[in-house]
Design a protein that fits this description.
This protein is of the alpha/beta class and 305 residues long. The protein has a domain at 47-153 and 220-300: 3-Layer(aba) Sandwich (Rossmann fold). It has helices spanning 5-15, 96-102, 134-140, 155-165, 171-184, 188-191, 204-217, 234-247, 260-266, 284-289, 294-300, and strands at 56-67, 70-81, 85-89, 113-122, 125-126, 141-144, 222-226, 252-256, 269-274, 277-283.
Length: 305
């Protein structure tokens, strides 16, 4: 029998699990998010501070978010480990994409959308602080959208564009970065003889991998993926999932997905959201086989959502 939303909503205050809080860490010297900060030597987080044994790169503490008068996120506390894949799951409208877009402040582009309480720290920096350079933030926190969005340029120029606006002008350097990025996105062998043809001539799956190559070309610390396979066929989806698994050795990946099987295949940790609350976060295998919260069990077993 399908569960009623009012029953689930009534249980939220008792069942929301907030991961333990840890101390914020300083920004790395790779690229400062704030123009007011001076470069400092990175300090790794305590490996014991996250079950993965990895340093924490994204730290959300009691985050509330509003669209106008409507509250979309309620007291979200979440820690994302470095160089792991973290999946966000939950029914439509639960807040998972809203939180994802908070990580590189894409919500700034929406009128009256704002973080109203709490902090989001990336590499120890509160990314909503007035001194933070949003452009620098988005260099370090790349984004791959639900629908592939290649520029109406050549394959080569799609990759080179981000490098050029970052100030890279040397042709040999750009050529090397284009090849390295396309290889990293498992696309080089398919396009190496057509680099100067329009990117719009690629298949849907190839276009999405091109967007991933474009994101990794500027060497971000984090890659955000908002349902990157929802418009792809099973073969193209499998290639993107293989790519996600390979990229986690170099990048931290946070992926929003409605496909729970995809979450089990791709992610190391999974967070379940419902009605703007973080209900549970745990190792993916444990969350899908032995969840702590009944709401999580009801969702992954198909009783609602």
């Amino acid at each position: 029998m399908a569960l009623k939303k009012d029953v689930l909503r009534r249980d939220l205050d008792h069942n929301v699990m907030e991961p333990a809080k840890t101390e914020a860490k300083p920004a790395t010297a790779k690229g400062q998010l704030s123009g007011a900060q001076t470069a400092t030597k990175p300090q790794a987080a305590d490996a014991d501070s996250h079950p993965s044994g990895k340093p924490i790169i994204i730290d959300c503490e009691s985050v509330d978010f509003h669209y106008g008068q409507s509250k979309a996120l309620h007291g979200i506390s979440l820690k994302v480990p470095e160089k792991q894949v973290t999946a966000f799951i939950g029914p439509s409208g639960c807040g998972k994409s809203t939180l994802l877009r908070c990580f590189n402040r894409m919500n700034d582009l929406v009128d009256n959308a704002r973080v109203t309480s709490g902090e989001i720290r990336i590499q120890g920096v509160n990314i909503n602080a007035p001194a933070v350079d949003v452009i620098e933030l988005r260099k370090q926190v790349g984004m791959v959208f639900q629908k592939s969005n290649p520029f109406p340029k050549s394959i080569y120029e799609n990759i080179a564009y981000g490098l050029r606006i970052s100030g890279v002008r040397d042709r040999d350097t750009v050529d090397g970065a284009v090849e390295q990025s396309l290889r990293g996105a498992a696309l080089w062998d398919e396009v190496k003889n057509r680099l100067h043809e329009s990117a719009l001539g690629l298949s849907g799956g190839q276009q999405q991998r091109l967007c991933i190559a474009r994101a990794i070309a500027v060497k971000p610390s984090v890659i955000l993926m908002d349902e990157p396979c929802s418009a792809l066929d099973p073969i193209a989806t499998a290639k993107v999932e293989e790519l996600i698994f390979a990229l986690k050795d170099q990048f931290t990946i946070v992926i929003v997905t409605h496909n729970m099987q995809q979450a089990t295949r791709c992610s190391d940790f999974t967070a379940f959201f419902y009605l703007g609350h973080l209900i549970e976060v745990d190792r993916t295998e444990k969350l899908f086989t032995n969840p702590t919260q009944k709401q999580t069990e009801d969702y992954i077993s198909g009783r609602f959502g």
